[in-house]
Design brief:
Chain lengths: 409, 409
């Protein structure tokens, strides 16, 4: 049987201590998240980009670079290889000749959180986990509850009352152990931390288990594969916990080490936040290595309402290393962008994804992005999960037999 | 430049009259829908299944067998090649060793209607259409409005007040011309018919333009390709207008003519309806060629609340020819199946899709499906578009600082 994964061990990016991946691990002793390391030299000998391209349309096509040893432990709903589409009409409006959407709404559960859930739950299953707990702004909890159900793992999910309504229904129909909290994700986090400490359940909080990043990094692999194993110039990412941007940066480094892409050519990574919750933007502006807790945070882009991310130092590092930036968008700007993307291009993106388009527009206006550069806006979820962001006023209501020509059109 | 499409002409399946596909066509003079014909002998020489497998993960991989001549007229959001996944836990519950889901929720707009919209709008664009109108139970209108926006076509959409709320928001954000009606899709159809007659707009009603079927038939191509160019034994399809089942049957016939699959081996096609709206089931039980208008129809599976389908005779023909059947499911059965699929397999399916699982269970119990047969349940949309089908009672609500161990778990 050929080797399915080339995972080697876990490593702390702060203190460099290493850990055994065959045991359950959470954070490093020093408090930092752990990163997964692979035997990349062996992967190089074992598989080529050409071979990967012939595999099925799922993120598991990169299985050598994912942490699960045994294929039978893979918990999949067919997630990954989401569309990367060129947006000519919107690009022309923004004066961007090569504007793309990476549409993560086209995935099971309608959110990119699914990538982390598929890989995280698969590894948890392999490690023999029977119960997990996590705080969530909604979409991650929904995804983890559904994949946990498939893996026979009990999932305790704590989400704010204000999280998108549909996500609590997803947890419920999956048979998850759902709890709401009259507060923010940081309050939910404290509840989960207490449960983890007292009851010894697996902590699936963002970055407190090392495998969610591995799922998210596949976005980086896919973007590069979809560009013919080249990196674009700019990738804009709506940043809450920041796992996606950390993952994409990790993917680029791995592909460079594998010799699959040009060495030292990075996409400039852009962390997009809402003005109502912009801790990374504040830290980046000051050139700091870590962010500060953002008080009284609020935004309709609920997934990025994260006042202080555990991996903030990794997010900021990826911005500095790739000569990227961080930018904050107003509610008005992101809602206008959401409408513009749908009415010009037909993509109904989520508010978080919309923020990246507003950011691309702004950065183009400021000259930070040049007209001919290849620019990827990462839409993290389907707009259909956020009905409340679209308001309809005064729609015509007909009675049977009415005519459209004589009614009030 | 190589030929993109091998479309030849349009043909009436009732009276065999042919029509020019380079002009706008709606129904046949005799009132029947028209079907698209291709030069299959030329396709055979031009492309192989092996070549198709190497193409990008979109329904446009079958472009030779789609009606659009010029690739630049293709209007795409990256739709198609949705997951086909084996469901072992649910299969074991149903005593089915080879139960599969074809998950059409994992597609732009979260519904299989997207296939018809992508192909239908692309051909409309090629034909120079500037305005279209259609009645809809929600999802088709949403998909057509979004693709029409991308194609710069004005879309007038008429949907019942009871259609899923999210679908009117999709039409609105796309900039569509939205009208609600206090009635059924059949009432909406009359309004549209009047507008078409009086104002000469393109009629995009189900089967009144010939190209929606072509989009839907790609489900048949994909299922066969995903089974390694073999047909499964049974395909269960939630049947409203029935375009999907007509399309899948057409795809099978085309692939047989192309020599891509075994001649004369058909999947048994099953039309699944709700007990509250079962005109096809009634007609099939009596061995009739057409259905009768189903009075006072009602079901929470809104997409299959179609009291009389224009293509009923084609649906029934496909059931008779493939030795399939038609079956009606109660509301209770389909809601129970929806819960069962999510909690065992992690797929949050729509109520229409859930009905096919309830049907598979019943037909297995009756012995109509055998244990070892390969069975495909076609889930036509994402459950997240139907929040009202999931009721949550008595969820625990915490205050910041509360503990899960001392709260009422």
């Amino acid at each position: 049987m050929t080797q399915f994964s080339f995972i080697s061990h876990l490593e702390c990016p702060k203190c460099n201590k290493t850990y055994d991946e065959k045991q359950i691990q959470q954070l490093c002793e020093c408090g930092s998240p752990l990163l997964v390391r692979y035997n990349l030299e062996d992967v190089k000998k074992h598989v080529t980009p050409e071979e990967i391209q012939r595999r099925s349309a799922s993120l598991w096509r990169y299985h050598e670079l994912l942490p699960v040893h045994n294929e039978k432990d893979v918990v999949t709903l067919g997630e990954g290889l989401t569309p990367l589409e060129k947006l000519d009409k919107l690009g022309s409006t923004y004066e961007l000749d090569n504007l793309y959407i990476k549409d993560e709404g086209i995935i099971p559960t309608g959110s990119f959180k699914t990538r982390g859930a598929s890989v995280g739950i698969s590894k948890a299953k392999e490690l023999g986990v029977k119960q997990l707990a996590m705080p969530t702004n909604g979409n991650a909890g929904a995804a983890w509850a559904l994949y946990a159900a498939k893996a026979n793992i009990k999932a305790t999910i704590v989400m704010p009352l204000d999280a998108p309504q549909i996500t609590r229904k997803e947890v419920h129909i999956a048979g998850g152990d759902l709890h709401l909290i009259n507060g923010l994700i940081s309050d939910a986090g404290k509840v989960v931390a207490q449960l983890v400490q007292d009851a010894g359940v697996y902590d699936a909080s963002t970055l407190k288990e090392p495998y969610r990043i591995e799922g998210k990094k596949t976005m980086g692999y896919e973007i590069v594969e979809q560009f013919g194993w080249k990196v674009p110039d700019v990738i804009l990412y709506p940043t809450g916990g920041g796992v996606g941007i950390i993952g994409i940066y990790k993917a680029i480094l791995e592909m460079q080490a594998l010799g699959w892409i040009e060495k030292d050519k990075f996409p400039r990574l852009v962390a997009v936040q809402a003005e109502g919750c912009a801790p990374i933007v504040d830290a980046w502006k000051k050139g700091e290595k870590e962010s500060k807790f953002f008080e009284d945070s609020t935004t309709c882009a609920f997934g990025i309402n994260v006042p202080k991310a555990l991996g903030d130092f990794l997010v900021l590092d990826s911005l500095y290393k790739t000569e990227g930036c961080a930018i904050a968008i107003s509610e008005q700007e992101l809602l206008a962008a959401q409408k513009e993307v749908a009415s010009l291009e037909g993509n109904f993106v989520c508010p978080e994804g919309a923020a990246t388009f507003a950011a691309a527009k702004k950065l183009r206006e400021q000259g930070w992005i040049k007209q001919e550069e290849h620019v990827v806006c990462l839409n993290t979820g389907a707009g259909i999960k956020y009905p409340e962001t679209v308001e309809i006023e005064g729609v015509n209501t007909l009675q049977p037999g009415d005519s459209l020509l004589t009614s009030k059109r």
